[in-house]
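Moderator note: this is an archived Q&A kept for reference. The question asked for a predicted structure of one protein chain; the sequence and the answer are reproduced below.
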Amino acid sequence: MLLLLLSVLSLFAVSTPSRSEIPIFSPPTVPETATAYFMETFTDYDEFKSKWVYSETKKKEGDADIAKYDGIFHLSELSVPGTWSGDNYLVMKDKAKHYAISAPLDTHFRFQDDTLVVQYEVNFQQGLDCGGAYIKLISQQDGLDLKHFHDQTGYTIMFGPDKCGVDSKIHFILRYKNPITGEYEEKHCDKKATDTGFFSDKKTHAFQLILHSNGDFDVAIDLFSQMSGNILTDMTPPIQPPREIPDPEDKKPDDWDDRERIQDPEASKPEDWDEDAPKLIQDENAVRPEEWNEDAPSEIPDPDAVRPDDWDDDEDGDWEPPYISNPLCEETGCGEWESPMISNPSYKGKWVAPMINNPDYSGVWAPKQIQNPGYFEEAEPYFKLTPIVAVGLELWTMNEGIAFDNFLITDSLQSGNFFLKDGYMVKYDIEKDARGERSLNSYLDMFVDLANDYPYIWAVYAAVLVLPIVLCCCLCPTRKRTPRPTPPSTDPAQEPSENVTGDSEVTDPPPAETEPVSPPSSPASKKEVQISDNSQDDEGATGSLPADSESPSVRKRTKKTKPRKDT
């Protein structure tokens, strides 16, 4: 059994790298049958240079001097030591800069499939105080040039984390085109993420957006759902506009009075109302305490002060000790005494006319409702979203070291989760090991994965678990339970009784050969017999003597007993 256990542990040790060894990360993949509209793992620098395009323009909003995209992305590994090697991230290394970069999709996504899955990884290596790590899925549009990608470039979906100060969120924004007016409008998700600890823990996190053709969406962080709903009911403003809207031409009439209450115009200030009366006055009934000392100063020279050694009278003048509060004043009071201030009973303050209901109140004004010229009905807005042709990062940050990795756009949730298991989950386990945070479940998963790779290990597991139980059942002796002896009866007249086990019959012990004793009628003899019987009961209760043996205490006490002479 010990050899089997050692074999399992040795295989586990071989398959699991030690903490002193830095594992080499292999980029994730998707199944061969999956469709990857866009996949980027940043494994090849030359491919990155040919695929990704830096913006050469400026932001359309803001001061032109600070609106230029001067941030440079770098391909590098994480700065956290002891994690893994061989995995490049797209890193924003400088803070207080604007960044803009984009890459075309390998295949345009046209919202004809049942599901859109967008996912990528982010690591805030220095935490995040103010900045963004969201992505934009750039829309198909006329004259699109990724070299001129900027903040006003049209996108279909914006998705990802954003924070500044205490305001943090996960963006999920749709840019939807009104089929009647042809105008685009941003629709913001109403839901809020329940967990935002990823902004400060400095770990790699996976952000995943799943959008189904029926409008249902789910935003997951590290494979845990954080926001879910439907784009028809959980977006603001809603995708489907209202039938009626306020008339933009309608104006409030000049004589419309929307004041519900007004000051009474007929009210007048009472004649005895004194607006100049002070709020506080001196208490005329106050009396100076007897112990008050008006001649004592409020401050005295500090008696503990010492003249500094470097004091020069010629340059610094005559030295005088600093003044401190007179401790006598704290106990009894000193200086000129003044009566305390109290509230003025005659004080009323400024007079104001009372409020009354407005007799001319016209109600709350609102423009009249008219038919919405842009109204349309759409039961399946997913299929009307603008096709996606590129992925873009247009960001600003006050923290350096924001790192991106493993972008994927696909139409299969199964493929997306396969990609996460092959990439993010591997990093998750390594980071847990590096921080000593691995849980019991993760170790169990390792043992299962090991057995799946080496099927004969299942037999070893079974032997290690079952063999000790079998050996214990076969080799461990069973304990025979012996009956507890019944103590002998102390009543000589009691008939012999059968043992509780029914095996034998208990009889009175034969009389002991002792010296002659007095007849039973003698009080002394009765007392001695009673003592001997009690001693026998105590010994029999412990099971140390057989039921048919004579108690040593009886024999000893009987030998010491002398016959009593008849008088």
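Archived answer notes: The chain has a mean pLDDT of 81.
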